[in-house]
Amino acid sequence: MTAGHDAELRAMRRAIELARRGPATGANPQVGCVLLSPAGEPLAEGWHRGAGTAHAEVDALAKLPAGAAHGATAVVTLEPCNHTGRTGPCAVALVEAGVARVVYAVADPGRASSGGAERLRAAGVEVEHGLLSDEVEAAIGDWLFAARARRPRVTVKWASSLDGRAAAADGTSQWITGPTARADVHRRRAAADAIAVGTGTVIADDPALTARDADGALLAHQPVPVVFGRRAVPAGAALRRHPHQLLQYDGPELAATLEDLATRGIRSLFVEGGPTLASAFLAADLADELLVYLAPTLLGGPGLALGELGVPTISAAPRFTFSAVERLGDDVLLVAHRAAPTTPTEGN
């Protein structure tokens, strides 16, 4: 490795650290930037603090006197944007500041915001991409997924007995799993932009759909509550007291609903409510991640965790890949992700 590459590698690792200071949820990605002198020494650094605030590159440039960035290298976790929204194009800001080289990890997949690299090259700026891209992809995975797929990343969660029941024969379901598993659920709620249930669950269980600590206090971030179904949410329902305004969709078209949620800045959806809604997302092939909390008990009876999925034969069954198995107190969490489609092989 050359000294210049080493300096850029260190700068990218620092930019990733800086990016994590920004909001982990919401419509905008976490982005960090480090400006290096022509000799490879750090000049300034910045990060994006949320919608409406300066982007990371502009934040870093603002910390330098006029002309101090001439000939510098900008190391950025995400491709500099190329559009005017609440702020101007970062690609233009870098050009006007006299930056000579830009190194970024991941290309911006946004329809309106992409193209910054091309604009920089057209202005004579040297551009390189891909440095530590795997680390950045992992760090802003939900935002990247939503930008590429034009819908939120969907996690479907359920808790069940070992024999796949989510409720006993009399309909009771609280609590199948223990406190450690329930605490894990609340932690994951807090990491999501929105949480969804069906109206059947609202009426039967009156859930609050908030993220809480072990003492019942609200965590700092709360997911937006989303309800699917035509029945009205009762006026006195706990959801009516949620910190965020309730969103309700009564249509059966899940794909269109997800597109609408994406326009509202929702990039991750935590589907938690009931076998009907969970089965609908699975049947529509819209579940990207599964969280299955298994309790060491048996219930029998009709209270299955999932309903009809429209699978006519074993060869048509949707496939997932296990990515984690965790022991949570007496319970076990299985984490699975949508499996990549298999490619038929040639020959016999």
UniProtKB/TrEMBL annotation:
Pathway: Cofactor biosynthesis; riboflavin biosynthesis; 5-amino-6-(D-ribitylamino)uracil from GTP: step 2/4; Cofactor biosynthesis; riboflavin biosynthesis; 5-amino-6-(D-ribitylamino)uracil from GTP: step 3/4. Its EC number is 3.5.4.26, 1.1.1.193. It catalyses: 5-amino-6-(5-phospho-D-ribitylamino)uracil + NADP(+) = 5-amino-6-(5-phospho-D-ribosylamino)uracil + NADPH + H(+); 2,5-diamino-6-hydroxy-4-(5-phosphoribosylamino)-pyrimidine + H2O + H(+) = 5-amino-6-(5-phospho-D-ribosylamino)uracil + NH4(+). The keyword Plastid does not apply. GO terms for molecular function: 5-amino-6-(5-phosphoribosylamino)uracil reductase activity; diaminohydroxyphosphoribosylaminopyrimidine deaminase activity. Pfam families: dCMP_cyt_deam_1, RibD_C. Converts 2,5-diamino-6-(ribosylamino)-4(3h)-pyrimidinone 5'-phosphate into 5-amino-6-(ribosylamino)-2,4(1h,3h)-pyrimidinedione 5'-phosphate. In the N-terminal section; belongs to the cytidine and deoxycytidylate deaminase family. In the C-terminal section; belongs to the HTP reductase family. The keyword Hydrolase applies. Binds 1 zinc ion. Its cofactor is Zn(2+). This is Riboflavin biosynthesis protein RibD. Keywords: Hydrolase, Metal-binding, Multifunctional enzyme, NADP, Oxidoreductase, Riboflavin biosynthesis, Zinc. It comes from the Bacteria. Transmembrane segments: none annotated. InterPro entries: APOBEC/CMP_deaminase_Zn-bd, CMP_dCMP_dom, Cytidine_deaminase-like, DHFR-like_dom_sf, Eubact_RibD, RibDG_C, Riboflavin_Biosynth_HTPR. It comes from Agromyces soli. Residues 6-127 form the CMP/dCMP-type deaminase domain.
